[in-house]
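Notebook entry, structure prediction.
Reason for the run: the old model in the group folder had no record of what sequence produced it. Starting over properly, with the input documented here first.
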Amino acid sequence: MTDFSDLQPDSLTAEQAAAEFARLEKRILQLNRAYYLEDDPEASDAEYDTMRRRVEAIEKRFPDLVRPDSPIRQVGAAPDGVFGKHRHLVPMLSLDNVFDREEFDGFLGRAARFLGLSDEDKEALVLVGEPKIDGLSISLTYEGCKLVSGVTRGDGTEGENVTANLRTIRGIPHELPADAPDLIEIRGEIFLGKSDFLALNEAQAAAGQKIFANPRNAAAGSLRQLDPSVTARRPLALFAYAMGVCSDRPCRTHAQWLEILRSWNFQVNPLSAMLAGSSEAEAFQEDLTRKRADLDYDIDGVVYKINDLTLQERLGFAGRAPRWATAWKFPAEEAVTRLIKIEIQVGRTGALTPVAHLEPVNVGGVLVTRATLHNEDEIGRKDVREGDRVSIRRAGDVIPQIIRVEPPLPQDPPRCPEFVFPHHCPVCNALAERPPGEAVRRCTGGLTCPAQIVERLIHFVSRPAFDIDGLGEKSIREFYEAGLIASPGDIFRLPQHEPAIAGREGWGALSASNLIRSVEAKRAISLPRFIYALGIRRIGESNARLLARHYGSFMHFREQMEKAVLIGSDERLKLGSITGIGGSIADELVAFFSEPHNRTTLDDLCSQLTIADEEVSSGGALSGKTIVFTGTLTTMTRPEAKATAQRLGAKVTDSVSKKTDYVVIGADAGSKAKKAAELGLQVLTEAEWAGLAGRETGG
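New structure, fully documented this time:
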C-alpha cells in the first residue's frame, strides 16, 4: 500500500485521503481494542491523539469521507462479551481536540456563529474548564434514586456491564437523595492515583503478576475483573462530571450540575473553574500545564464546556463530538533532524505533492522518516532545501510537518541550491499546471498518466467505494502492469482471467477463486458508493450521499448531470443550489460529465452493474419535504435552521422551484420570496417555521 503518512492533510488528493483514511481506520480499530478491552496499549496517548487529529484534519478538507460506521466515528471499542452488554440510554460520545489558542478561538467562534452571536458575545460566553482525566469512562444509571447499572463506554453506544465491580468503589454512592430525578445517568472517569499505581505495580511484581503500563490501564484492568473482590482491593476513584439521560433536569448550567454532584456525595475535580472567553481559558490552560506534574493523577489536557445547558442543547453534535465542548491538549513534541531529499508524488487527480525524506529521528516516542512539505509555496516560504537541518513537529497529525529550517552546524557543507518545483509530471512528463488561485500544481496528462490511472483504480476499489476483498493497492498495480485492467470496467472482466491470475507468482487457484468471488459479489452497489467510486474531484462520501439522496437513482442523476453541462441550464442552477454542494463541486461534476471518455466509462460500468436507487428516509417528521430559507433570521442562525430541518428529514436547497414545499421568509427577503409567491408555494414566516419545527420535535 502506498504510504501517504508523510503528507499533510491539506496537500492530500482525494484518492490519497481515502487511502490514508482507510489506513488510519484499521490502525485506530486495533488501538481501540488494545486500549479499551485488553488494557494493554500499543501506542502512547500522544501517538493516538495525533492519529485522531490527522483524521479530523482530513475530514475537514474531505467531509465526504465521514462515515457513521467507521472506527473513526467510534468512541471506544465494542464490548468483547466477557461482561454482559448494556446499551447507554444516551450515547457516550467523545470530544474534538485543540492544541493552541488559535484553534481554541476557532472552536469558540464556530459555536458563536452557529448561535448567531457577535465576536463580543463570543468572548463573553461562560465556560467551565475541567482537567481531562486520563482514566476509564463510566456511566452510572440511577432509577428511583438507586444505582441499577454501571457501564463502561464501550463503543459509545453499548458498553460492558460492570455494576458489581463499581459497587465496590467507595466514591460511588449506591443511592441518591430523595429529591433526585427518578431516572438519571451520571458520567465520570474511573482513575488510579500515581502513588497508588506505583504501589500496585510493586505488589504485582512481587507476586509475579502483570505489570501495568500506566495508571489508566491499571484502572481499567482493575475494574474489568471477573471477581469483584479484586476490584475492591484496588484504590480506584471516580471524578464525576457529566449527565446523560435525565427524567427531570435539576439545573440550568454545567457549573450548577457539578455542585449538585458534590451535594450527592460524588467527587468532583476541585480544579474545575468557571471562565469567560478565550483569554481566561488560555490562562487556565497555562496554570494547569504548570501544575500537571505535581498532581497525583494523570491529565492530558483540559476540557472546556459552554456552561449554559440550553445553549448546549441548541448546539448539539457534529459527528461523534459535541459543538459545545472541546479538549485543549497539552503541547506536542519537536525534534531536529536532516532533510535527505525532496520527492514529488502524483495522485489520482494529478496533484503534485512534495514529500521530505528525513534522517530517522524519534519524536514523542515515534520514529519519523518522512514529513509533509504541503506544496511549492510552503517550500519557498520556508526556504527548505535538501541537506538542511530542520525542526519536525508531531502534534495534530500522524504525519509530521517541518516547522522551520535550523541554522547549519559549523562542520556542515554549503547549502544546496533552492529546490525547483517541477513544471512537468515526474511520471508521464505531461505539463503540470497550477490553476489561478490554487496552491496545487496538477499533471495535465489525465488518464494518459499511469500514476493517475492506477490511483483512480485504487480509489474505485477502496473501502468506502466498491470495497472488493483481495483487490487492494498491490493487486491493482500488479494487474495494471500485466495489462489485465486499465479501466474500472476491466475489474468486472477479471473473472475471464481467473486461470491467468491463478498462475501468477504469489497467487494460486484458491486465492484467485476468492478474488473472483469477491468481484462478483460487488456487481450490486448502492448509489452513494457508486458516485463516490467514480473519483470525481471534491466528491467524497458525504457529498456522494447528498447527491444520491437528492437525485434518488443513477439514471436520474446522470440525466440531470448531462443536462447541467449546458451553461445557464435549470439543471446546472439546481445542482449548485443543493445545500452542501455549491459552485465549486458543481463545476467538478460538470467537468466530469463533459468528458466523452467518462461517459463511455459509465456506459461500460452500467452494463455490468446493478446500482440500487437511494431510498429517502421516512424517519424524520419532515421527510421528503424540500425547504428553502431566505432573508435574515433573527431567532436562530441560518446554519442552525438548516441543521434543524435536515435533522427532521427535509431536503434543504438554496433555489426555489415548483417542487419546493416550504419557503421560510426572514427579514429583507429578496428574489426567492418573490418567486415563491409567483409559483404559489407555501410561505412561512420565521415564527411559523419555528412553530412547525417545534411541533415536529415535540418542543
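Summary: Residues 527-612 form a domain with the DNA polymerase; domain 1 fold (CATH 1.10.150.20).
The old model has been moved to the deprecated folder.
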